[in-house]
Structure formats: structure tokens, C-alpha cells
Write a structure and sequence with these properties.
Layout (H helix, E strand, L loop, with lengths): L22 H17 L1 H7 L4 H9 L18 H14 L1 H5 L2 H13 L2 H12 L4 E4 L14 E5 L2 E8 L10 E7 L5 E7 L5 E4 L14 E10 L3 E2 L11 H30 L16 H32 L5 H33 L11 H10 L5 H14 L10
Parallel strand pairs: 1-4
Antiparallel strand pairs: 2-3, 3-7, 4-5, 5-8, 6-7
Helix pairs in contact: 1-4, 4-8, 4-9, 6-8, 8-9, 8-10, 8-11, 9-10, 10-11, 10-12
Protein name: SfnB family sulfur acquisition oxidoreductase
Family: Belongs to the HpaH/HsaA monooxygenase family.
GO molecular function: acyl-CoA dehydrogenase activity; flavin adenine dinucleotide binding; oxidoreductase activity, acting on paired donors, with incorporation or reduction of molecular oxygen, reduced flavin or flavoprotein as one donor, and incorporation of one atom of oxygen
């Protein structure tokens, strides 16, 4: 089993995976994983210990294949269930929630752009326990959509060269999904097997939050890949889709989980450890009227965010039940953007307010309660909320459809 990185890449252990049958089984598997993951989440963050055991439970439980289409042998659960699965897991450990996020985003992309033969191979591998990691973003480019990595034809296969960063999930994966430009300047998505010559994954993620996601560097030096494992992902721009909304829904669910964990820890600390402020003239901090009001406000904000998250997931389910047109794709993106605004804001607010309500003792390193704010601050930087306000306003005021990409 891989626990470190060397110049020679090797694949993680391939574990037998359950194939779940329905939404109820997926939710139960998520609850069981969350129960396990919660036990040592604070310590893993403090020690920067990667959640290998928990990721392996994720795989064995069958959660990795819950979005595989029924036509390919998967349960094809609803978006509402997917959002709830990620919320449950992220409330226990948001790093564990973020690691497979791209796995699900890429499965959705395969449904839209891969050939039937490619889907058959890749979906079967996921059902068999293969995990998909991300090698899309790059540092030092004009913006997040710009790529320097290149894929070139070499006889009956391709070769890829480039350098990636923010490669969440790659270290834990069996497939590394690499975005690259071909000779015609079109974006392709290549599925590189772990252990391929020229592939190197470096665990150099040093972010102060989401510390155990291993979202570091992927190096590719003339890495070979079979032609039938190269997806024409550029075709995604040719037709309306909910690809971006589906990806963002999971991001919002992760933030909702962070917010819930921060609020629950605030409540527990106030009940069990905090002292009342002298002016309150009460025996317990939990009887302070201002603390009570603030907890009430946080709970209301959390419930509002959770409600919009569920609503957005149901909109995605409704729109994907039939052919997706431009207005449907836009409506899905706006519904998810509205949820993402509230989940972002409540995650940041709750994780900061925790300390004001719990008091000075809550700042002691032994409790590691600052991990909630660190996780919220880092994860919510994925896409700026200010642009979501703009997209939502432009849609409702002028009927302007948002752009089609994974950051709206």
C-alpha cells in the first residue's frame, strides 16, 4: 500500500468493492463512514496524517460507484443523495469529503463525452474499486482554464508532458485523469494508470486548511497512454450540460458539512467547558442569553443553506431526467450557485463564531477547533462567491445565462 512518494510511481492497493443497489444503501454507507472518520479527524489534521484507512473504507463500501449509470451496472443514485453523502462525510472530515469530489465530477464528464466503449471500460473499473484522481489545474498560467500540459500522438498511443498542481485525489487514485491540449489546441482528458513510466505524484500540499487532501503536484514526463483512454473532453462545450452544476453541488455539500461540524463543536464546548460571562449572571455559559441567540442564528443560517442545497440537488435531478437545453443548464447552475453562496458564508461564519461563543479556552491547540475555520477558508477559495452573486443577479434581473464551466 502506498504511504509515501518516490521517483517511481506505484499504484495504491486495489480493494474489492461492494456495488450498492440504491440510494438508501448509499446513505447508510455514508453514515457508517462518517462515524468512523469522525473519531480521529482532529488528530489527522494536527499530524497531517493522510486518511488512507478511511479512503479504503470509502472504496470497499461501494460509495465510489454510486453515480455509475444503471445501464453499466451501477445504482445511479440521485443528485440529492450524492449531496447528502458528501455532506455527511464532510461533517466528519471535510478532507475525506474533498478527496473523491473530482472522482465524481469526472464520472459525470464521462457520461457526457466518452464513447460507449470508453464508458464500459472506465465505469467497470470504478465498480471494481478503482479510484479516479485529478490532474487538471496548473500553477503559473493566466487563469484556471489555461493549460500548458500537452498530449501528442506517438504511433498507436499518446504521450503527455506537463506539471499539475491542486491535484486532489491523485495520490490516492488508481487512474489519474490528466487534462492536456492536443496538437490542434483542443482539451483532452487522458486516463493514466498509476505506475506508468514518467508519472510522479508529489505530496507537497502545504495549505493551512484541508491539510490531508494531498492536493499537490503531478509531474508528467512523456507519460504513455493508450489511445482508447483519451477522452474528447472538448466536446463538452458543444452542447448544454449540467456538468459544472454537478461539480459545484458537491463543493457546496462539503462546505455545508464544515459548517455543521463547527456549530456542533461550538454547542458541545459551550455546554461542557465554557464559563459564563460575568455580566450574564448565570451559572452556565449555555444559559447566557446572547450565546443562546447566536446559536439560534447559526442554526437558522445552517438550515437555510441545507435547504437550498437540497433544492439545488432536486433541480439537477429534474433537469437531468430529460434532454438538457441551455435554459435547463442555466437553471441548474443558478440553483447550485445560490446554495453555494449560503454554504460558503455559513461555513466561514460558524467556524469563526465558534471561538467568540466558546471563549479563550477553545483556542488551545489540544482541541484543534481552528481546523474548522482553516478548512472552510481554504475550501471556499475554490470559486469566489462574489461572482456567484453576480451570476444569480444577472439571471434573475436580465435573464443572462451563466458561463458553462466547473466554477459557477
Amino acid at each position: 500500500m502506498v504511504r509515501s512518494t518516490s521517483d517511481l510511481d506505484s499504484s495504491p492497493l486495489l480493494l474489492p468493492a461492494t456495488v450498492l443497489q440504491n440510494d438508501a444503501q448509499a446513505l447508510q454507507a455514508a453514515r457508517e463512514l462518517a462515524h468512523t472518520a469522525r473519531q480521529q479527524a482532529a488528530r489527522r489534521d494536527q499530524q497531517r496524517k493522510l486518511p488512507w484507512t478511511e479512503i479504503e473504507q470509502f472504496t470497499r463500501s461501494g460509495l465510489g460507484s454510486i453515480s455509475i449509470p444503471k445501464a453499466h451496472g451501477g445504482p445511479e443514485v440521485s443528485f440529492e443523495t450524492i449531496a447528502e453523502v458528501f455532506r455527511l462525510i464532510s461533517a466528519a472530515d471535510p478532507a475525506l469529503g474533498q478527496i473523491p469530489q473530482n472522482h465524481f465530477g469526472i464520472i459525470q464528464l464521462l457520461r457526457l463525452t466518452a464513447t460507449e466503449a470508453q464508458q464500459a471500460v472506465l465505469f467497470r473499473s470504478v465498480l471494481d474499486g478503482w479510484r479516479i484522481g485529478n490532474a487538471g489545474p496548473e500553477r503559473g498560467t493566466k487563469d484556471t482554464l489555461t493549460l500548458k500540459t500537452r498530449i501528442t500522438r506517438d504511433g498507436d498511443r499518446y504521450r503527455i508532458s506537463g506539471e499539475k498542481f491542486y491535484s486532489t485525489g491523485a495520490l490516492f487514485a488508481h487512474w489519474v485523469a490528466v487534462k492536456a491540449l492536443d496538437d490542434a489546441g483542443r482539451q483532452r482528458l487522458a486516463f493514466v494508470r498509476r505506475g506508468s513510466p514518467g508519472l510522479r505524484i508529489v505530496d507537497d500540499w502545504s495549505g493551512f486548511g484541508q491539510r490531508t487532501t494531498a492536493s499537490g503536484t503531478v509531474l508528467l514526463d512523456q507519460v504513455p497512454v493508450e489511445a482508447d483512454l483519451v477522452i474528447d473532453s472538448w466536446r463538452l462545450r458543444e452542447v448544454p450540460s449540467t456538468q459544472g452544476a454537478a461539480s459545484q453541488l458537491i463543493q457546496a455539500a462539503i462546505d455545508a458539512g464544515i459548517a455543521e461540524a463547527a456549530i456542533e463543536d461550538a454547542i458541545s464546548f459551550v455546554r461542557e467547558k465554557s464559563r459564563p460571562w460575568i455580566e450574564a449572571k448565570v451559572e452556565r455559559a449555555s444559559d447566557d442569553p446572547y450565546v443562546i441567540a447566536d446559536i439560534g442564528r447559526l442554526k437558522l443560517e445552517l438550515h437555510a443553506a441545507q435547504a437550498l442545497l437540497r433544492k439545488a440537488a432536486r433541480v439537477l435531478d429534474e433537469i437531468n431526467a430529460g434532454p438538457v437545453d441551455e435554459d435547463g443548464a442555466a437553471r441548474a447552475s443558478i440553483a447550485v450557485a445560490e446554495a453555494k453562496v449560503l454554504t460558503t458564508e455559513v461555513a466561514l461564519q460558524a467556524s469563526e463564531k465558534l471561538f467568540e461563543l466558546a471563549g479563550s479556552r477553545a483556542t488551545l491547540a489540544e482541541f484543534n477547533l481552528d481546523r474548522h475555520w482553516r478548512n472552510a477558508r481554504v475550501h471556499t477559495l475554490h470559486d469566489p462567491v462574489r461572482w456567484k452573486y453576480h451570476a444569480v443577479g444577472a439571471w434573475h434581473l436580465n435573464g443572462t445565462r451563466p458561463a458553462q464551466h466547473s466554477w459557477i
